[in-house]
Automatic annotation (TrEMBL):
GO terms for cellular component: cell outer membrane; pore complex. Transmembrane segments: none annotated. GO terms for molecular function: porin activity. It comes from Pseudoduganella lutea. It comes from the Bacteria. Homotrimer. It is a multi-pass membrane protein. The keyword Signal applies. Residues 1-20 form the signal peptide. Its main location: membrane. This is Porin. SUPFAM superfamilies: Porins.
Length: 361
């Protein structure tokens, strides 16, 4: 009887220790609704779409206490389409995030893998009242696609907070044989978050060179550079948002859809542009009204400017479930070709309407 009791105590002790040191969380978002788009070459489009406000996803987040304030951490996150059950990106499993690293309360956090670009973190979390989702997404005019959203082969270091201040730096290897610079990207963000004020200043630099492959010669191209200043302030009765971004160089301001409006001469991606945003969130009962205005000023000879205004409303049905409605309209100038999309899609025309439901777990 004593041996059994001792064995049970030892087993219980190991179980308690493992529970205290390790923790894995399964989390996700389930988001779907009806989207109607008009104004593009495809005509009026009405569809059931996944990931309008936030891309539907399932993820695994883990941490292990290593002692002395140090923890091992990891995240594996996969996107999927709720409307048809397929993966968000064919050929990949954890296409959204996949990283492992160490986190220290005093020294900061270092992670390696596929991760968010600090530029996108500032745009979606600080600048945009729509959170980079719904018809009013800042991604419709601000350059936030591809490596400006997530970056593979990335090393990210984030400092601890000092009186609200922190720094986030990323260096991503291009991993092209024979050239350590080709395809690399680095980004650094200076952040402040304390009380009602949030602010970020981010610089992003993308190398567009390509090494020779087969009969295709190497290409030395201009770097793409983005500098974003994003601010929001919560007055309680209204939360105000503002952002300004300078884009310069190749791929600094790509067009999400090559020629959505079927122009005889396709729109040209700007090599120098200024982007501006003003927005608000107004609490109303169990929900909030969201509105924003954006302007893209193409500073090249093409002068392909665009403006967008958007309005939406989200209603909290519970702590985890919300319903939403949103509408946005883009005014393209001089053959510009920007479209109204949402969090998961780039859109097909110059207007977009959303009606849907979102649940987090």
């Amino acid at each position: 009887m004593k041996k059994l009791t001792l064995a049970a105590l030892i087993a219980g002790s190991f179980a308690a220790t493992a529970s205290a040191q390790s923790n894995v969380t399964i989390y996700g978002i389930v988001d779907a609704g009806i989207v109607r788009e008009t104004g593009g070459a495809a005509g009026s489009v009405t569809k059931v779409t996944s990931g309008i406000g936030s891309q539907s996803r399932i993820g695994f987040r883990g941490t292990e206490d290593l002692g002395n304030g140090l923890s091992a951490i990891f995240t594996l996150e996969s996107g999927y389409k709720l409307d048809d059950g397929t993966v968000d990106s064919a050929g990949t499993l954890f296409n959204r995030q996949a990283f492992v690293g160490l986190s220290s309360k005093t020294l900061g956090t270092l992670t390696l893998g596929r991760q968010y670009n600090p530029l996108y973190n500032a745009l979606s979390k600080v600048a945009d009242p729509f959170g980079a989702g719904y018809a009013g997404s800042a991604k419709n005019l601000f350059p936030a696609g591809g490596v400006n959203t997530r970056v593979s082969n990335a090393i990210v270091y984030t400092t601890p907070k000092w009186s609200g201040f922190s720094i986030e730096g990323m260096y991503a290897l291009g991993e092209q044989a024979g050239d350590s610079e080709a395809g690399r990207l680095f980004s650094i963000g200076f952040n402040y978050a304390q009380g009602p004020l949030n602010a970020s200043l981010v610089y992003n630099n993308r190398n567009n060179d390509a090494v020779a492959t087969g009969t295709t010669p190497a290409a030395n191209r201009e770097n793409g550079k983005n500098t974003l200043l994003a601010v929001n302030y919560d007055f309680k009765v209204v939360k105000v948002f503002a952002a300004f971004e300078r884009d310069k160089g190749l791929n600094s301001s790509p067009i999400p859809v090559a020629n959505a409006f079927g122009y005889a001469v396709a729109p040209r991606a700007s090599l120098e542009a200024d982007d501006a945003l003003l927005g608000v969130q107004v609490p109303v009962g169990s929900g909030k009204i969201i509105a924003s205005w954006m302007n893209k000023n193409d500073k090249t000879a093409n002068n392909q400017d665009a403006r967008q205004w958007a309005v939406g409303y989200t209603h909290d049905l519970s702590k985890r479930t919300s319903a939403y409605v949103a509408y946005a309209k883009i005014d393209n100038k001089n053959g510009a070709g920007y479209t109204v999309g949402n969090n998961n899609e780039v859109g097909s025309g110059d207007t977009g309407f959303n009606l849907g439901i979102r649940h987090t777990f």
